[in-house]
Amino acid sequence: MTHRTEPRKTAQDTADAALRRDRFGKLPERIRPEDTVETRPATLPDPARDRYHADEWLVRYCG
Asked: 22 in helix, strand or coil?
């Protein structure tokens, strides 16, 4: 019959395990979805940007 033995644990192993448990033993605080979104007021549209220019196609394609 074969006996399985547990590996010996040293004081350093126990201290390392305690440090890991302190650091990773709990989940971080929950972040609410409201805190993940930033809202800013919209800027007013520029009327000159969307203004129709009859000769714009000449500048774009022939210029």
From this structure: helix
